[in-house]
Amino acid sequence: MSRVEITSFGYLHGAEPDARIKLDLRHHFRDPHVNPELRYLTAHDQAVRDAVMATEGVEQLLQAAEAMVGAYLAGPRQDEPVTVAVGCAGGRHRAATAASVLAERCAARGLDVDLVHRDLAKPVVERTYAPVDVTPPELQPSALADHVPDWAEAAPTPTDVQDWPQRQAAALVPFQLDARGWPLHPQGRTGRTGRNLGRWGENQAADPIVVAGTGDQRRVLLITRDDIEEEAIPGGMVDPGETAPAALVRELREETGVDLSGHRPVILGRDVVDDWRASDHAWVASTSALYMLPATVTAVAADDALDATWYPFGSLDQLDAAITAAGRTLYAAHRPLLQRALDHLDQG
Q1: CA dist 131 to 38, 87, 138, 161, 192, Å?
Q2: What pLDDT, on the 0 to 100 scale, is given for residue 60?
Q3: Paired sense of beta strands 201-212 and 282-293, if any
Q4: Distance between CA atoms of residues 203 and 197, nearest Å
């Protein structure tokens, strides 16, 4: 039987182990360490595993790593094990989760897998916090003084926002202000500062999950986003003065041409979304809603959608397989929302 040896580790605990395949998760993927609720947990805790797997890009990296393992095993030196080293800063969260998932997937293919978490049980390494400023040029204070984009507020910093009590009262997810009066991300530090969203603090979004059919014929409607070119739930930001129910209908109609104004959805949740634009002081919270139709309807991509597609929706694995077969990738931040829809449908 072909053998795969996978080791997770933390760069802060020593040199990386020797391996044929090396994955460095330090700089490209959000670190759960910055969230106080996750800092002292490990990959053995479901909350950490969920946070890592919902991080944009992790799923694609694991798929690529699994393909690399298969490529090495197809070579002429099949008598030697394929060695994989997966590293992050401390070795407790990202690396250990990714290594565990990769080991599970290799084992499911019938491979003999040896998994070692070199540093998972070691103490947390306390680190100096130095977030990266993600503010784009058009939202820099000097740019805002000349021109304010129609999708953004004019305040160059949170200090310039005058209605924090009202924003806190209207928030989908409660949040606090720091000593400066700046809003704090409800889930803790993100590793990013500044603003790459329309508003400081919570930016409300609406995500309509449209499902048609039942059983083997069940399908879900997804769009290809034009900003990241990944498959995602239709949806977008709630406009000023707009309600979430109205935004659900509007976004769906604008992006797919499907008008469900006469339908009453099931509200699945109001949650912070792990959006790639989020920072310590600006983030996205979404109202996710499930629309159930007896059969698929014609959907035509428009607005900021490049395509609109009905995909098989028996499970997330089935959805992943269909999206991969189409040469596309599922937007990681929407995986928990889609799983919630599946759980609701399967309970019904």
Answers
A1: 18, 20, 20, 22, 5
A2: 94
A3: parallel
A4: 7
Amino acid at 286: S
Instruction: Report domain extents, the chain.
Output: 3-117, 201-347
Which 3 state secondary structure label does DSSP give 83? strand
Q: Which two tokens stand for residue 316?
A: 């997330």
Class level of CATH domain 201-347: alpha beta
Length of the chain: 348
Distances (CA, A) of 291 to 202, 246, 253, 262: 25, 14, 13, 11
CB atoms inside a 10 Å sphere around CB 46: 9
The residues that bridge with 6 in the sheet, in sequence order, are 84, 115
Give the C-alpha separation, 205 to 207, whole Å. 7
58-98 pLDDT per residue, tens? 999 999 999 999 999 988 777 789 999 999 999 999 999 99
Is the separation of the CB atoms in 220 and 272 below 8 Å?
no
The CA-CA-CA angle for residues 55, 172, 168, to 5°, reads 115
Closest CA to 33 of 138, 131, 141: 131
Q: How many CA atoms lie within 13 A of 232 on its CB side?
A: 26
A 10 A CB-CB count for 104 gives: 11
Where does 118-158 show beta strands of DSSP type E? Answer: 132-133
Question: What is the arithmetic mean of pLDDT over 134-140?
Answer: 97
